[in-house]
Amino acid sequence: MGQNLVNTAPESDLTGKDRDAGQIAVTRRDVLVGSVAIGATVALRGQVASAMDGKKTFTILHTNDLHSNLIGMAPATDFSPFTLNDDTTRGGFARLATKIAERKSAAETLGPVLVLDAGDYSMGTAFAAAIRETGAELQLLAMVGCDATTLGNHDFDLGPDGTAAAIAAAAAAGHVPVVLAANTDFSAAEPKLEGLQQLAAEGLIRDYIVIERGGMRFGIFGVQGREAFGYNVGAAPAKFADPVDTARVIVGILRDTERVDVVIALSHGGLRRNPDGSFTDGADVRLAVEVPGIDVVVGGHSHTVLTSPIMANGRTPVVQAGHNGRSLGELTVTIDGDTLIVDAFQTHPIDDTISGDAAIAELIEGFKKTVT
After folding, report:
1. Taking the model in full, what pTM does it have?
2. What is the DSSP string of 113-155?
3. What is the 3-state secondary structure (H, E, C) of 302-314?
């Protein structure tokens, strides 16, 4: 196993389990956008003793399956991020950045805020063709404040060496979120895996991180679900361990060694739609059911926009926010002793009621030159 690393980031202290080259981890689709106040109260696992005194509230702002949608789409020719109410496009990092900053400022009055992404940040537009040279998607995630992302199946479409090149390019530009990939095994002595091995040695790819923020310790890890890695035709010779087995090991470390207050899984596994159109099951849900030490699951892969969290085992909220940056999810949770309370959940549409961030838009203009 790799050594523990401690780094400092704005507004947070991060510690994480790094992985050296010899480590083996043991480890589609839309529904209507909406919002709902939850008020659900659930008991935390009996074996978990919170180190916190009194009530603590935190918020998670989350995305998934952004698929290289740097600008607003449908139709992109009408996208005008600096004027309001004059186009029908959804998404785009410039508007997403504004909404994240707005919601983060509001939520920080309640407690600490995390910004998380559940993978498949790449592949889907022409920008993806240049990701090995630019790392544009990862750069933009970092610049909008993303604390961590994970690797979805499409993030391996250009091979594991392509995945590594993109992360390295973003790191070289000075803007990259930590990538959490606990059940991705890239330890084999293969040339195509050397880039990932080097990134792990540098702490840019980890099994998990611990973020200390607002008097709370958050343990966050990432896994790719069984169905998702079944689509990973470009990932070889990287391999994927069972996500549930992996999660059990990581949760044990986070609870017993790192002594975190909250465990969050970034699960690129997906949800299954029921015949009546509802969502109650899927890999993201089963992860929480089979690993009860997880407090929150931020999911991806199935491109599902939930109007309320799925409460796995009646106690762990599972959330997802669609695809292509068309929505931003916001989950607010309070922990009171051994009780977890879901205060509210909503998905914010990223549309032309939002004025885009000028700095982000300027950076994207530069990325456009790499694909035209």
Report:
1. 0.87
2. EEEEE-S--S-SSGGGGGHHHH-HHHHHHHHTT--EEE--GGG
3. CCCECCCCEEECC
